[in-house]
């Protein structure tokens, strides 16, 4: 039992490998964590509010990866989540990790995805037309996908097609090796499950 959130924070900073903690103002319970992961149980609200000592280090799945964007070498902070989840659950998981779903809004980012992950898995690419049919939005900033040249390069022939209007296909995946057109993008039901990548932009 500690008297305040500040005392709990000090306890965390003085403890080995503590990157985050939870503090319950009513019970004065202070619970220390090494960090949070997409593969662990989510924090129990009974333990109080979540606080992180370092917003980047507290989330254990993330690492820096090199990427070339507009011919400029740089790095991004990403986490590969090898859990097959629906699109909405994948978005929620990234949100809980204080991040957004990785998007392929440029050819550089698509090339990065293929280079890092290959063609083994179906993967969400952070693009959907859930709000308005035919208007695809990027999951990280909500902006419209308007690059027709990139659409022609990335999407499979005849896609996106919204399931020929027979079933709703509002979320976009990268196809896997077993598919004839592996690596191409396709709109599918958001209820299907696929792997995904989360990205932090302020690390």
From TrEMBL:
Domain Apple: 1-56
Segments forming domain C-type lectin: 77-199
Range of residues in the leader sequence: none
InterPro entries: C-type_lectin-like, C-type_lectin-like/link_sf, Ca-Dep_Lectins_ImmuneDev, CTDL_fold, Pan_app
SUPFAM superfamilies in UniProt: C-type lectin-like, Hairpin loop containing domain-like
Pfam families, per the entry: Lectin_C, PAN_1
Domain of life, per lineage: Eukaryota
PROSITE patterns for the chain: C_TYPE_LECTIN_2, PAN
Name the UniProt record assigns to this protein: Brevican core protein
Organism field: Biomphalaria pfeifferi (Bloodfluke planorb)
């Amino acid at each position: 039992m500690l008297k305040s959130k500040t005392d709990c924070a000090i306890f965390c900073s003085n403890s080995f490998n503590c990157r985050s903690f939870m503090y319950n103002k009513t019970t004065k319970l202070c619970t220390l964590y090494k960090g949070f992961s997409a593969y662990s149980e989510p924090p129990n609200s009974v333990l109080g509010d979540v606080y992180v000592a370092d917003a980047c280090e507290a989330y254990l799945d993330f690492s820096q990866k090199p990427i070339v964007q507009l011919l400029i070498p740089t790095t991004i902070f990403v986490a590969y989540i090898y859990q097959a989840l629906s699109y909405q659950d994948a978005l929620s998981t990234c949100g809980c990790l204080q991040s957004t779903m990785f998007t392929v809004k440029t050819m550089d980012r698509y090339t990065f995805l293929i280079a890092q992950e290959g063609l083994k898995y179906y993967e969400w690419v952070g693009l959907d037309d859930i709000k308005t049919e035919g208007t695809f939005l990027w999951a990280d900033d909500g902006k419209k996908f308007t690059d027709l040249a990139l659409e022609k390069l990335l999407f499979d022939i005849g896609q996106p097609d919204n399931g020929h209007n027979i079933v709703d296909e509002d979320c976009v995946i990268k196809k896997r090796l077993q598919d004839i057109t592996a690596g191409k993008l396709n709109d599918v039901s958001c209820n299907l499950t696929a792997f995904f990548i989360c990205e932090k932009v302020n690390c």
